[in-house]
Amino acid sequence: MNHDRVTKEGQETAALYALGALSQHEARMFDLHLNEGCEACSAELKQFDRVVDVLGSEAEPVSPPAYLRDLLAVRIEKEAPDRPPVSGSVLAFPEKAAVLQNQTEPASSSPSRVILPWAAAAILLIGLAYTFVSWRSERQTMRAALEQEKAHSDETLDENDRLKEQIAKETDLATELAQINAVLSSPQWRVIPLTGLDPAPASAAKVYWDVQKSRWVVTADLPPAPAGKVYQLWFVTASAKVSAGLIKPDKTGHGFAILQFPSQVTQLQAAAITLEPEGGSEQPTMPIYALGKVS
After folding, report:
1. pTM of the entire structure?
2. pLDDT digits over 137-189, tens only?
3. What is the full DSSP assignment across 189-257?
4. What is the phi/psi pair of residue 223, to 5°?
5. Domain limits of the chain?
6. Cα 110 to Cα 65, 107, 133, 145, distances in angstroms
7. Helix (H/G/I), strand (E/B), else coil: 271
8. What is the rounded CA–CA span in Å between residue 76 and residue 74?
9. If DSSP codes are grouped into helix, strand and coil, which group holds residue 121?
10. Nearest to residue 229, comparing CAs of 245, 243, 247?
11. What is d(CA 42, CA 98) in angstroms, rounded to the nearest whole number?
């Protein structure tokens, strides 16, 4: 069965296979699994092969623990094929007995001497490979946790920005309403409504005029101004158009301004809003967006 991703058991099997520490049966079963086309296990084996190559050339010889001799002797005795019994009896010459005994003893202990260093190195490599696998798994887990924390932090920052924007908008609205109420509470006040004309029929504005303090509180809903343009309010008389000031709507097109009504303006007939180059103009240069007549 092919794996969608590497399992812990697959990692251990690939590590032991790369080190040659699997039994013949286990190695054969892993070969069959690889031949079935499991890309996850094949990729894992390639990584362990590279680790073994590096460890094989960089690791310094170490003295194996004493208990390994007993473990290897038990494994050799368990996995060694049974020898056929010797038929008949063999009589050794007396003078050859000591020689045969001396030749037999080294032969029985030689496999341990040969296998013992290899087994120690194999155990060392298995430990190092397992440490490498654990380190990589912990690193991936830590990376995923950091990415999740970063995403959470980004969401928190976005939410904070939205809250700040909402608070600022509500603060501006409260200031605007307070200014309007101040005008409506004065002894003398007037309201001049402005309606949208052809360039922006949906535009609308209101001028709250505190006559006693010669002050205008202007609210307007206009299309967002194009880059390099600004809205400008005008006092319109029979003989002149006098700039009252600039109106800078927010992203939604809502604008608010407090302007001083000039004492030199007499016989006011209307208030008008035009779209002018940034910084404003001395006289209107573009069509009127909103107009309100003074009754």
Report:
1. 0.47
2. 777 788 888 888 778 778 888 888 888 888 888 888 899 999 999 999 999 99
3. EEEEEEEE-TT-TT-EEEEEEETTTTEEEEEEE-PPPPTTEEEEEEEE-SS-EEEEEEE---TTSEEEE
4. -65, 145
5. 8-78+92-153, 188-293
6. 18, 5, 35, 53
7. strand
8. 6
9. helix
10. 247
11. 55
The b-or-e profile of 258-284 (16+ CB within 10 A means b, else e) is ebebeeeeeebebbbbbbbeeeeeeeb
Q: Which CATH architecture has domain 188-293?
A: Sandwich (2.60)
Nearest Cα to Cα of residue 210 among 190, 193, 237: 190
Of 235, 236, 230, 234, the C-alpha closest to 280 is 230
Side-by-side strand order, sheet with 204-210 = 241-247, 229-236, 270-277, 288-293, 189-196, 204-210, 215-221, 254-260
CB 253 within 8 A of CB 290: no
Round to whole Å and give the CA distance between 235 and 268: 7
Instruction: Give the residue with greater pLDDT, 102 vs 256.
Output: 256
